[in-house]
Amino acid sequence: MKKVFVLFLAVSTVAVVSLFSCSKENTSKNTTLKVRLTDNPVLADEVNVDIQQVRVKFSEDSINGWTDLNTYAGVYDLLGLQNGVDTLLAVGTIPSDVVKEIRFVLGTNNTIMVNGLTYPLSIPSGSESGLKIKVNKKLNGSLDSLLIDFDAALSIHQTGSGSYQLKPVLKLK
């Protein structure tokens, strides 16, 4: 009888430990957020966007505005980010909350190459305020990722004078 009781106690202990170890919740109040970038095809040789900073805004005013992520600043050729290819733009540990918006702060080295010729890409109002995308996503767990599709095909516009403008079309995937 004593052997049966010890065996029952051992099995019960293993069952309880297994139950609690399988139901891990994110008990921390922070999430490591990764922002990734991808693109849809466009008829050009290169579409280069100079991303200097990635910032996030939360739904709660208690956070007080925008938070900067650790950004891998540089000039990104959007055409290299097609057909399932993406790149890590920024990462940071932030409060587990609802991300309301993401902002890409751009530098001045934005260009397009068409038929071997490089043209500057002007960005109406984007150079001052950055490129914003509405997100409204609740962060889940201790690690979460957002994939931003920078749709170059819909974003590039050639003017009547032959210059090019970037009016960004950004989508959350």
In short:
The protein has helices at 2-22, 126-129, 152-155, and strands at 30-38, 46-58, 66-68, 70-71, 74-77, 87-95, 98-106, 111-114, 117-122, 131-138, 143-150, 156-158, 164-166, 170-172. It has 173 residues and is of the alpha+beta class. The protein has one domain.
Your description of this structure?
By secondary structure, the protein is an alpha+beta fold. The protein has one domain. The chain has helices spanning 2-22, 126-129, 152-155, and strands at 30-38, 46-58, 66-68, 70-71, 74-77, 87-95, 98-106, 111-114, 117-122, 131-138, 143-150, 156-158, 164-166, 170-172. Mean pLDDT is 78; it is low at 1-26.
Report, as a whole number of angstroms, the end-to-end distance.
Answer: 61 Å
The count of DSSP E runs of length 2 or more, i.e. the number of strands, is 14
Q: Per the principal axes of the C-alpha atoms, what is the gross shape?
A: elongated
Helices and strands, in order, run as: HEEEEEEEEEHEEHEEE
| Whole-number total of structural domains | 1
> Taking Cα atoms only, what radius of gyration do you get, to the nearest Å?
23 Å
Helix share, percent: 10-25%
Number of helices: 3
Key words describing this protein structure:
single chain; 173 residues; alpha+beta; nine-stranded mixed beta sheet; five-stranded mixed beta sheet; 3 helices; 14 strands; 49% strand; disordered N terminus
List the helices and strands and how they pair.
Elements: H1 2-22, E1 30-38, E2 46-58, E3 66-68, E4 70-71, E5 74-77, E6 87-95, E7 98-106, E8 111-114, E9 117-122, H2 126-129, E10 131-138, E11 143-150, H3 152-155, E12 156-158, E13 164-166, E14 170-172
Parallel strand pairs: 1-11, 9-13
Antiparallel strand pairs: 1-6, 2-3, 2-5, 2-7, 2-8, 4-6, 7-10, 8-9, 11-14, 12-13
